[in-house]
Task: structure prediction
Amino acid sequence: MPMSVNPEAQHQIANGRLMRLFDVMQRHRRSSMLVLLLVTLLAIPGLFKLTIDTGFSGMIPERDPAMQIYKQITAEFGSDNKALVFIRDRALWSNDKLRALQALHEDLLKLDAVKQVESLASMRSLSGQGNQLRSIPLIPELPARAKNLQQSKQQALNNPLVIDHFLSQQGQATLIMVTYDQQGFDREPQLNADLNRLLQNHQQQFEQLFQLAAFRLNAELKQALVEDLQQLGPISIAVLLITLLLFLRSLSAAIIPLITSVISLIWTLGLMGWINMPINILIAMLPSIVIVISSTEDSHMIMAYLRGLQTEHNRPRPQAVSFMLRHIGIPTILTVITTALGFASNLFSNLQMIQDFALASTLAILANGVITLVLVPVLLEKFGPKNNPIKHSELQKSSISNWSYQLFLHSNKRWSFQILSVTTLLCGFFIYQAASLFVTNDPLSYFRSDRALLQDVKTLNSEMAGMKTFFIMLKSDQDKAFQQPKNLQQLVNIQTFINSQNVFDSSLSLADYLALVNREFYAGNDNAYRLPHSEKQTAQFLLFFHRNELEPYISHDFQRANIIVRHNITDSSTLNKHINGDMAAAM
Result:
């Protein structure tokens, strides 16, 4: 006959094995504590190697097809690693201000890793007179007469390649676009510091001057992250300490979870420093997570220890610790394992940022479990309460413990059906609401509304086209396809549709450059702002531009064309909705 094993007997066998393990640790207590101390000392130097990564590249899988397309477009049409330098001054079109603008332009070119600088100081204007078409600097040679400066201003305001892109509608604000090479963005903190230092030297020359760039956003995110870590850590500790004091009524019992949490964080963050894993915006939550989970496990063990003390004459501490380990040892180990597995499941994510968080959180949970099981029994045996402080308070009707107990007891006896019914309804309601959840990425939402960065973004959006961009690339297998009017007309059709949506701020393509030449060819007649009528005329008009001016919009063989769309939508969910819907309609 097959023999059946009593579950209670199985539990006793497992518990006996566990107790033997705990007995070994207790007998070799000094060795166990020495190991904890050595690991902690080894981890501490790693804390000084920690870095903070506030970039969002970890949110895009490297092998994602969209990432490959992005790399292809930026490799061919130029980097989108740009810094926007915003200038506003009521006397912008004066000799002094334009001279200061030119000086700033030259200084920006001298910065490390700068590939290109575009501004009013480097742009040229087309002017058609009779049968002649001239390309002249947009800003005349300085000093210039006020009349000539006003003429240059009017030419800039009439230029669709300049207005809203490099000059505001009122002509009092301008933009300098600084393009950095790809390797330059690997030194973001230094680039941000260098640019800020340069702008500080020119600050007094204009009424308003600031820069907006990805490295400024990352720098301020890093600062906000550090501020959050400095604030949330102490707040979490204070809340935990107050809560444990209220319920456990013992200072020594309340401090133990804090000790295990701190050591766990030292181990985890130290290891991250040694293996060069940066702190990202997800890992920044780790201290609060570890403190909460550690307090749960430690609180269960402490409560079991206090029950072990609760006899007629109070057991001594060693016996109470033994009671605790027998009753709570296996549940604690199971809690550690299941919690660690829950966090570790995120290792299968395609996003590097989530993988890093999964690894860090799993290490933190496992480290906390080991530290708790080794250190808590020792601390309780040496410094734990000698009697149960909750035992006497339970007799007081006004105590928190008694109030909580009576609340759960009363609700379970009288309102069990109502509680289950309300819980079921709430679960159904929230499941229904969960269907409307969406994923978004808005870096600016991390900041408070009064932060200078948000105010600068708001100023730029109110004066010029938005700082955000996306590309629309068209490809053809025909030789010099985008010198043919019918293919160029496709660019015009797409841009017309984009502008009709009233969602995006502006768009530019090769078609805009050709239409401008065509208009000036007809003496600035606005009705002539259209594409040239033949492929031959298109080739002739292209001679008025340098290759570096057309590089962002057309490939060298004219088989691939690029439309650059600027906007101020920071919410990726809203942006994707318009791109996927509106762009599909345009095609």
User: Anything to note?
Assistant: Strands lie at 82-88, 114-118, 124-129, 132-137, 173-180, 208-213, 468-475, 506-508, 560-567.
